[in-house]
Amino acid sequence: MKFVVIIIQKHPPHHEMMPALTEAMAQWVAEAKKTGKMEALYSIAGQPGGLGIGNVDSLEELDDIVQGIPMGPFSEVQVFPLSDIDHAMATMREQVKKMGTLK
Questions:
Q1: Which range of residues forms the domain containing residue 49?
Q2: N or C: which end of the chain has fewer CB within 10 A?
Q3: Are 18 and 70 spatial neighbours (Cβ–Cβ below 8 Å)?
Q4: Beta-carbon neighbour count of residue 61 at 10 Å?
Q5: CB 88: neighbour CB atoms within 10 A?
Q6: What is the number of structural domains in the chain?
Q7: 54 alpha carbon, distance to own chain's centre
Q8: Three-class SS state of 14
Q9: What is the per-residue pLDDT across 68-85, written as a single tens digit (0 to 9) for each?
């Protein structure tokens, strides 16, 4: 199952925590890349946040990844499931055809 996680910092941590949190985030990113569970990771330009596209086998695995984000407690975290675009377009076409036959 693929998903996108968007994390935007909303509550700045105390400045004394930043060195340890920065290192923890760097380690989290390195581990996420190493395991391949996060297929892509990005920083959001001009904002204290980022996003990633992950691929997991279960919702529990997704939950483990999201709960493990060191900046999570200070951030708004959004998770969206992803669907294959070709499948979605085929479904949309079928639904549009059905709507055309309704009277």
A1: 2-101
A2: C
A3: no
A4: 14
A5: 11
A6: 1
A7: 7
A8: coil
A9: 999 999 999 999 999 999
Cα 35 to Cα 69: distance, rounded to the nearest angstrom: 15
Residues with Cβ within 8 Å of residue 88, at least 6 apart in sequence: none
Average pLDDT, stretch 16-41?
94
Burial of 5 (0-12, 13-18, 19+ CB in 10 A): buried
Helix (H, G, I), strand (E, B) or coil at 65: helix
* CA dist., res. 103 & res. 63, Å (int): 45
> Could you give the C-alpha distances from 61 to 3, 40, 58, 79, 98, in angstroms and in order?
12, 17, 5, 13, 37
The first and second tokens of residue 65, run together, are: 């990844």
Give the global pTM: 0.82
* CA pair distance 20, 40, nearest whole angstrom: 24
Q: Which of 34, 47, 37 is nearest to 8 (CA)?
A: 47
